[in-house]
């Protein structure tokens, strides 16, 4: 039996980066205060002490410069892992992401690779307000040449980070800030979580629920509540927003004939819309009910705790969506 260790999301990410830096000397970290302090939440603590300032590079406050450096370093054969703190700040580096990182490998016919990872934190449920809590993964999922992953717990956080670092394309790694302290037993030995595959969390026959990021926790609560009411839900943790693991979703919907998607981003133009469109296009004759979405309203997230709670999807809202489909 594999040896297990209880660890939280924060340290799972730290351990994954450190393991990859020991394995591959081309891997280094870069960002604002990622060295000594280990970033604003201490995720990269201890890395500078082990690997030195040459591989734990502190930068000025310039998101564009950080991602621009990643593009150049990756093209030169290195594997940067950058931190952009809160996801909202990534808007200051969209030019470097979209016009450079996502296109360079394609424009040079695959001769130039772009193996870099950018970590960005979403802060919904943390009371961080509208300037720190946006879920922008859908923006980057629409960019050809980009990959986007969203871990949901310590196990997937470590495994996805290792896969992201080894990938030869730019990967946006979206971290759930409010889940940092949640602990889980994960293997001590090395393992990878593949990019582009969803995880079947629970088997079911009545409805498929697809969760994104930290919404897996709410979905698991909803599955338990639905089971108590005689509804057997199958839960898929999406894990990868681009490329979407549609074959995994199709396989589940063919079993259950119903689909509900829960994600923290806004419902309008959210990733759930793309999943819903693809399912109705490919599996229309398999569906016994319209595809439903449980997501945030089309407005900015509030700072005030009660308004933030009202804004965010949760287990009770998801249960109501599922029961609506079940009639």
Task: Note down, in words, how this protein is organized.
- It contains twelve helices and 14 strands.
- With 327 residues, it is α/β, with parallel strands linked by helices.
- Strands 3-2-4-5-7-6-12 form a seven-stranded mixed sheet, with helices on both faces.
- Helix 8 (215-228) packs across helix 12 (315-326).
- It is globular, with a radius of gyration of 19 Å.
Offer a concise description of the structure.
By secondary structure, this protein is α/β, with parallel strands linked by helices.
Q: Which properties best describe this structure?
A:
single chain; Rossmann fold; alpha/beta; 14 strands; 37% helix
Number of helices: 12
The multimeric state of the shown protein is single chain
Shape: globular
Query: Poorly predicted ranges (pLDDT <50, ≥5 residues)?
Result: none
Classified by CATH, the class of the largest domain is Alpha Beta
Report the β-strand fraction as a percent range.
Answer: 15-25%
Summed over residues and divided by their number, the pLDDT gives a mean of 95
Named at the architecture level, the CATH assignment of the largest domain is: 3-Layer(aba) Sandwich
Structural class: alpha/beta
Number of domains: 2
* Structural Rg: 19 Å
The CATH homologous superfamily of the largest domain is called Thiamin diphosphate (ThDP)-binding fold, Pyr/PP domains
Strand segment count: 14
Secondary-structure blueprint:
Layout: E1 4-8, H1 9-23, E2 27-31, H2 47-51, E3 56-58, H3 63-75, E4 79-86, H4 94-101, H5 104-107, E5 117-122, H6 137-141, E6 147-149, H7 154-166, E7 171-176, E8 183-187, E9 199-202, E10 207-211, H8 215-228, E11 233-237, E12 240-242, H9 246-256, E13 259-266, H10 271-283, E14 292-296, H11 305-311, H12 315-326
Parallel strand pairs: 2-3, 2-4, 4-5, 5-7, 6-7, 10-11, 10-13, 13-14
Antiparallel strand pairs: 1-8, 6-12, 9-11
Helix pairs in contact: 1-7, 3-4, 8-12, 9-10
